[in-house]
TrEMBL record:
GO CC list: cytosol
Name of the protein in its database record: NAD(P)H dehydrogenase
PANTHER family assigned to the protein according to its UniProt record, in alphabetical order: NAD P H OXIDOREDUCTASE-RELATED, NAD(P)H DEHYDROGENASE [QUINONE] 1 ISOFORM 1
One Pfam family of this chain: Flavodoxin_2
Domain Flavodoxin-like fold: 1-214
Positions of the UniProt region annotated as Disordered: 241-263
Taxonomic lineage: Bacteria, Bacillati, Actinomycetota, Actinomycetes, Kitasatosporales
Length: 263
């Protein structure tokens, strides 16, 4: 594999930092290549503004057209261009972060906001049908991704009956709405629960699980998201009635139930 390890935690001495080190060591041991984007260490700017696109600040900023034009003409901010080059090189993306307020840290959201611009991450149209190529098709098709997240909560509370909600539902905006939208296949996430109460034994278990997931990553079945353009959706991008069944919300957009999250 050629891995881009996207890391968002402010302290390298944290549980997250230790797991990243273990993960990179594992990739080395198995002969994989990797590059790292440690966003806090890089002091990554998460805020979209006109300077990203060499755009005249006196003119109204329409982010979609401005970013697409800047990408097409090589005028994106150098820090954005550098991250796009890393992702272009990689065939696998690891997205690692602590689960804060049911989502990813703002610095990581800002990485996607600034890097996944139109023209680079999306914007293809099928010439035969005129339909946008997204949700399973697109510019990043052929790559795969895995989310690694630590949480203070117990694993059971992040399951389908847990008070915190099912982890795959919490990650739906990232796994489906960002990664799958751009064509990236997403394997089931790795949850490391009880992060605030980690013991040496618990850490050893977490490290073992991480090594196993990285070892099997190339052959792991991805989450069974529906493709936008394979006939499941009508011309208004609504699921055909016979496919919705008893499911609504995120569950309706899988062809089969995703595997359960294990502690």
């Amino acid at each position: 594999m050629k891995v881009l390890w996207l890391f968002a935690h402010p302290d390298r001495r944290s549980l997250s930092g230790a797991l990243k080190t273990e993960g990179l060591r594992t990739l080395d041991a198995h002969g994989h290549q990797y590059r790292v984007s440690d966003l806090y260490a890089m002091k990554w700017n998460p805020v979209v503004d006109a300077a990203d696109y060499d755009h005249d600040p006196s003119d109204r900023l329409l982010v979609g057209p401005a970013s697409e034009h800047a990408y097409a003409h090589g005028r994106l901010s150098p820090d954005i261009d550098a991250e796009q080059q890393k992702l272009t090189w990689a065939d696998t993306l690891i997205v690692q972060f602590p689960l804060w307020w049911y989502g990813m840290p703002a610095i990581l959201k800002g990485w996607f906001d600034r890097v996944f611009v139109k023209g680079f991450a999306f914007g293809l149209t099928d010439p035969a049908t005129g339909r946008p190529q997204r949700y399973g098709d697109g510019r990043l098709t052929g790559k795969r991704a895995m989310v690694i997240t630590t949480a203070g909560a117990r694993a059971t509370t992040l399951g389908p009956r847990g008070v915190n909600g099912d982890l795959n539902d919490l990650l739906f905006p990232l796994q489906h709405g960002t990664l799958w939208y751009t064509g990236i296949s997403v394997v089931p996430p790795l949850l490391i629960p009880g992060a605030d109460r980690t013991t040496p034994t618990a850490y050893a278990t977490a490290a073992t699980r991480l090594r196993e997931r990285l070892h099997t990553l190339p052959t792991t079945d991805p989450l069974p998201f529906r493709h936008q353009n394979n006939g499941d959706y009508d011309n208004d991008l609504l699921l055909h009635p016979h496919l919705t069944g008893p499911h609504t919300g995120p569950a309706a957009h899988y062809t089969a139930p995703p595997p359960p999250i294990h502690d």
